[in-house]
């Protein structure tokens, strides 16, 4: 039977969240070769123009659920607006980003429908004979579970962001676009969003951090780690480190990275004085860009980095801080890390 897969779209600041487009790419793969259809439900207010982008990323049908009360997120509002639409559509499978929005309202739908709901999925697909299958991270990313359900079971998949990436759109691709205007009374909502605050990088969980500055044994002391803390705050990054650094008291115990600590996948990972033990490298494998600074040019960390700098962090970081301060004041052009110190003080290598 051809699967009908439905994706719940999320919008912030009038833009589709990348996690939505990742879900859409996953849904497209699920129906590929099976003559299935992909439908996207787009809740919000004034979001109709985004339907074209969804079509170019693989949607066959886009259902815009529009109401002024949906301009800001409310779990009650989304449930009241979307449940009737989903009941009419009767999708075989539902995909949504594993986000604060999804975790606020989808479990309620799951309970009402007695529908299995799988969080933190890295992959979702339909295998032979129509059996839904999911892979998900568990135990802080240390385990990868495989889950299979009986044919015909409706399943909700909450997809982990930044796993598969967003493929290029197919310009000019068309989709059927329909409008639904639900009858909603915001006075009945038990929750509402007043405003959205960005996370504080100083306190955000390392697992959720987009930028991480990390220190290892080569930092040398608590003072060295404090220097990295200043750099992290300047970059809007989160401070982490190795188990050895945490064992020495330079970091809290919940701030060390590796298979025995936190498994991270930031967009930018900068390591200072980290030699690159196997368990640490395994813990940063999902990082998009890795920069490493170490006095030991043979350190494994340098070999796996996108940019490796052989040099002393105590010489490099103060100059980096000055350059970043100049950038913030608009008096300097952007500079690469390799430009932060004189040539005589470092060597640069990249993978």
Q: How are the SSEs ordered, and which strands pair?
A:
Layout: E1 4-8, E2 11-12, E3 15-16, H1 18-31, E4 37-44, H2 51-56, E5 61-66, H3 75-89, E6 93-97, H4 100-113, E7 117-127, E8 131-138, E9 143-148, E10 155-159, E11 176-180, E12 211-215, H5 222-235, E13 238-241, H6 243-247, E14 268-272, H7 278-283, E15 289-294, H8 300-304, E16 307-310, H9 313-328, E17 347-349
Parallel strand pairs: 1-4, 1-6, 4-5, 5-11, 6-10, 7-10, 12-13, 12-14, 14-15, 15-16
Antiparallel strand pairs: 2-3, 7-8, 8-9, 16-17
Helix pairs in contact: 3-4, 5-9
Features:
Rossmann fold; single chain; 9 helices; six-stranded mixed beta sheet; nine-stranded mixed beta sheet; 351 residues; elongated; alpha/beta
Structure notes:
- This protein is α/β, with parallel strands linked by helices and 351 residues long.
- It folds into 2 domains: 4-188, Rossmann fold; 206-349, Rossmann fold (3-Layer(aba) Sandwich).
- It is built from 9 helices and 17 strands.
- The strands form 3 sheets. The chain has a 9-stranded mixed beta sheet, with helices on both faces.
- Strand 2 (11-12) and strand 3 (15-16) form a beta hairpin.
- Helix 3 packs across helix 4 (100-113) and helix 5 (222-235) packs parallel to helix 9.
- It is elongated and about 65 Å long.
- It starts with a strand and ends with a strand.
- Residues 332-336 and 341-346 have low confidence and may be disordered.
Task: Please summarize what this structure is.
By secondary structure, this protein is of the alpha/beta class.
């Amino acid at each position: 039977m051809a699967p009908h897969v439905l994706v719940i779209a999320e919008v912030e600041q009038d833009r589709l969240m990348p996690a939505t487009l990742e879900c859409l790419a996953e849904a497209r793969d699920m129906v590929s070769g099976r003559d299935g259809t992909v439908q996207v439900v787009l809740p919000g207010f004034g979001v109709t123009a985004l339907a074209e982008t969804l079509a170019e990323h693989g949607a066959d049908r886009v259902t815009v659920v529009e109401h002024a009360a949906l301009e800001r997120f409310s779990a009650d509002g989304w449930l009241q607006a979307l449940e009737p639409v989903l009941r009419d559509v009767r999708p075989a499978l539902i995909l949504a980003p594993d986000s604060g929005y999804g975790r606020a309202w989808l479990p309620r739908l799951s309970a009402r429908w007695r529908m299995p709901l799988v969080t933190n999925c890295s992959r979702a697909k339909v295998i032979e004979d129509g059996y839904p299958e999911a892979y998900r991270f568990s135990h802080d990313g240390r385990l990868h579970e495989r889950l299979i359900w009986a044919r015909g079971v409706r399943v909700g998949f909450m997809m982990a962001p930044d796993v598969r990436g967003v493929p290029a759109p197919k310009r000019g691709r068309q989709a059927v676009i329909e409008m639904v205007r639900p009858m909603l009374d915001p006075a009945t909502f038990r929750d509402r969003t007043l405003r959205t605050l960005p996370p504080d990088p100083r306190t955000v969980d390392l697992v959720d951090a987009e930028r991480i500055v990390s220190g290892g044994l080569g930092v040398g002391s608590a003072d060295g780690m404090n220097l990295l803390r200043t750099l992290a705050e300047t970059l809007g990054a989160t401070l982490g480190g190795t188990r050895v650094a945490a064992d020495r008291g330079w970091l809290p115990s919940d701030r060390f990275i590796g298979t025995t600590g936190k498994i991270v996948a930031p967009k930018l990972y900068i390591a200072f004085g980290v030699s690159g033990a196997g368990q640490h490298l395994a813990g940063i494998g999902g990082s998009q860009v890795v920069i490493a600074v170490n006095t030991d040019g043979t350190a494994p960390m340098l070999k796996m980095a996108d940019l490796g700098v052989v040099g002393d962090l105590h010489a490099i970081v103060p100059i980096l801080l000055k350059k970043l301060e100049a950038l913030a004041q608009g008096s300097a052009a952007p500079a690469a890390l390799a430009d932060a110190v004189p040539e005589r003080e470092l060597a640069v290598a990249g993978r």
